[in-house]
Amino acid sequence: MNAREIEKCIDAFGTDIYRFCLKLCADKADAEDLYQQTFLKALETKWTLDWESNPKALFFSLEKRQKKAGAAKYDCSLQQY
Questions:
Q1: Half-sphere exposure (CA, 13 Å, Cβ side) for 58?
Q2: How do the domains of the chain map onto residue ranges?
Q3: Class of CATH domain 3-69
Q4: How far apart are CA 68 and CA 47, in angstroms?
Q5: Looking at residue 74, what is its pLDDT?
Q6: What is the pLDDT of residues 22-43, one digit of tens each?
Q7: Contacts by 20-25, CB closer than 8 A, 24 or more apart
Q8: How many Å apart are CA 37 and CA 10, to the nearest integer?
Q9: What are φ and ψ of residue 71, in 5° steps?
């Protein structure tokens, strides 16, 4: 993914992704950090985004993986998801 695609994603559904981060993390600072890490990770990947499918779901799953990878860093729980 390139920066232009990331910007388009943020404009299209960045608010929804941020709200999901807030649900995953009890702390606003951790949620903001997870939000940034999610989009940075997407920028590092070689994904090609298919806008006909559900690109928002791709980011939700990436968020969950980012949270699991940094479980000690983020004081939040995925047990309910």
A1: 18
A2: 3-69
A3: mainly alpha
A4: 20
A5: 52
A6: 998 878 999 999 999 989 988 8
A7: 20/60, 20/63, 21/63, 24/63, 24/64, 24/67, 24/74, 24/76, 24/77, 24/78, 24/81, 25/67, 25/74, 25/75, 25/76
A8: 13
A9: -55, -40
pTM: 0.75
The pLDDT of residue 8: 92
Parts of the chain with a pLDDT under 70: 70-81
Tell me how crowded residue 14 is: count the other CB atoms within 10 A of its CB. 17
What tokens were used for 19?
């709200």
The residues with which 25 forms a beta bridge, in sequence order, are 76
